Amino acid sequence: MDELAEDVMNHRKKGAFMNTRERIEKVFLYAVFICYLLLLLKIFFLSRVSISELFSSQRPVDRSINLIPFDSIGDYISGSSANLKKFAFSNVVGNILVFIPLGVYLSLFKNNKIINLLFIFIMSLFVEITQGLLGIGTADIDDIILNCLGGWVGILGYKLLLFLLRDEKKVYTVSTVLSVIVGLPVIFYYLFMIKMRF
C-alpha cells in the first residue's frame, strides 16, 4: 500500500514538473513569436521610413501597385542589369524566407493547414494594401504569392518535423529550443543592429 501511495506521489510530481516545463516552453515560444512579429513590422513598414516620417505630411508619397501575377518576377528574371538581378534575387528569396517562420508558428499554435494558409494570405494582403495606402513600397500581388509560398514551406517544415519525431510535444520542444537558440539572436540582430533601407 505504501508503494502504491509512493508511486502516485511520484507520478503527481512528474506531472507537475511536465506542466511547469510546458508552461515555460509556451512562454518562450510566444515571446519569440512576438519578437518575430515586431521584426515583420520593421521589415514591412519601417524599413524605408521611421515612425515619425511614416505619418509626416512632409514625406513624399509614391504609390505603386502591381495587380498582374508574376509581372514583377518576370521583370526581375528578364532584367539585364547585374544589380537588378541581385535585387530581384534578394526580393524573391526574402519574401519567401520572411514568412517561413510564420507558417511554422501558426502550425504549432493550431495545426490546421487550410486556416493557417488563409491567415498567411490575409496577413500578406493586409501588408501589401497598407504599404500601398501609406506609400511605403510597392503593393505587389507577386509579394503576396511569394509570402504565401514561404508560409506554405513553413507549414510543410512543421509537418516534416512532426513526421520525423512522431510526437507533437517533441516538435513543440524542438521548435521552442530552435526559436530561442537560433531565431531570437537573428531577430534581435535585425531588429536592433541593422537599419534597413530597401
Count of alpha/pi helices: 8
Task: Please report which band the strand proportion falls in: under 5%, 5-15%, 15-25%, 25-35%, 35-45% or over 45%.
Answer: under 5%
- Give the overall form: globular
Rg estimate, integer Å: 21 Å
How far is the first residue's CA from the last residue's CA? 71 Å
Strand order of the largest sheet: 1-2
Mean pLDDT: 83
Largest sheet: 2 strands, parallel
Structural class call reads: mainly alpha
What is the β-strand count?
2
Short description:
This protein is 78% helix and 3% strand. The chain has helices at 2-45, 51-54, 71-78, 82-97, 100-109, 113-134, 141-165, 168-193; strands at residues 64-66, 138-140.
Write the layout of secondary structure elements.
Elements: H1 2-45, H2 51-54, E1 64-66, H3 71-78, H4 82-97, H5 100-109, H6 113-134, E2 138-140, H7 141-165, H8 168-193
Parallel strand pairs: 1-2
Throw out a few tags for this protein:
198 residues; mainly alpha; globular
Description:
Helices cover 78% and strands 3% of the residues. The protein has 198 residues and is mainly alpha-helical. Strands 1-2 form a two-stranded parallel ribbon. The longest helix has 44 residues, at 2-45. The radius of gyration is 21 Å and the shape is globular. The mean pLDDT is 83.
